Amino acid sequence: DVKVTQSSRYLVKRTGEKVFLECVQDMDHENMFWYRQDPGLGLRLIYFSYDVKMKEKGDIPEGYSVSREKKERFSLILESASTNQTSMYLCASSFRDGGLGEQYFGPGTRLTVT
Amino acid sequence: GQSLEQPSEVTAVEGAIVQINCTYQTSGFYGLSWYQQHDGGAPTFLSYNALDGLEETGRFSSFLSRSDSYGYLLLQELQMKDSASYFCAPHTEGFKTIFGAGTRLFVKA
Fold first, then answer.
1. Which residue, of A110, B12, B49, B77, has the greatest Cβ tally within 10 A?
2. Which of B30, B31, B101 sits opposite A41 (nearest CB)?
3. How much is the pLDDT for A105?
4. Of A96, A102, A107, which is closest to B42 when you measure between CB atoms?
5. What's the pLDDT tens digit per position in A93-104?
6. Chain A partners of B31 at a C-beta cutoff of 8 Å?
C-alpha cells in the first residue's frame, strides 16, 4: 500500500520562526512535490524535485526553500515564517514517467503562523 | 501564459449523471489528470488521459480533446459520497502539473 507521510497534521508557529515541514514516501518515487492549498485558489506548486539533491521552483517559491538529501524524503523550509504563509501544505510523489499521470498525496499539514 | 477553467460549483441529485468541464491553456501539454478531494482529506487520483477520447473507470469517465484544449469528468449514478471537490490537472513541461481551484460537487438526496 503506497504511503506518503507528513511530519505534522497541525502546526502553529510565530512570525519570524524557521519552520521545517517533512515529507516521506515509501514508494521509491523519483518525483516529489510541495503544494500549498488556499480556499478559492486551489493547489499551487511551491517546489518540486525529480531526483536526489535536485530541485526546481514551482509557481510560488518566494519565502520557501527545499531539501532533498535522500530519495524518500523531501523537506520544505520556511526561512522566516509570515502570516501570509498560513495555509494547508500538501506533499506528493510520483514515478518519473508516471509523473505524467498519478501523484500520491500526503494527508497535509495545516500551518498557522501567528 | 497558462490558464485553467472549470466551474466553481455543481449541484446534482443522487442517482443522476453530472459532467464537470475543464478548459486549459498551457505551455506544453502531455495529458490531463482528474483528482477528487473530500473535505479535510488529501487529493486522490481518479484518471489520466494522454490521448483524445474517453477513459472509463467504473462510474467515472474522463474525456480529452487535445485540439480543443478541453476535457470533462463524467460521474454516473451519483452517490452522496461523491460530494467533494474535483480538480482537472493538465501536465506540462518539466514534470509540472497545474491544479486550479477545482469544482465543488454537491450531491442532494
1. B49
2. B101
3. 96
4. A107
5. 998 765 556 899
6. 100-101
Nearest to A90 among B42, B101, B102 (CB): B42
Are the CB atoms for B107 and B44 separated by under 8 Å? Answer: no
Here the cell at position A79 is 526561512
Contact criterion met (CB < 8 Å) for B42 and A108: yes
Provide, rounded to the nearest whole percent, the portion of chain B with pLDDT above 70.
Answer: 100
Q: B6-43: b or e for each residue (b if 16 or more CB lie within 10 Å)?
A: beeebebeeeeebebebbbebeebbbbbbbbbeeeebb
pLDDT reading at A88 higher than 90: yes
pLDDT at A100: 55
What residues of A are in contact with residue B101 (Cβ under 8 Å)? 40-42
Q: Which residues of A17-36 are buried (b: 16+ CB within 10 A; e: fewer)?
A: eebebbbbbeeebbbbbbbb
Q: Per residue in B70-98, pLDDT tens? A: 999 999 999 999 999 999 999 887 778 88
Inter-chain touch A45–B97, beta carbons under 8 Å: yes
Cβ-count burial of B104 within 10 angstroms (0-12 exposed, 13-18 middle, 19+ buried)?
Answer: middle
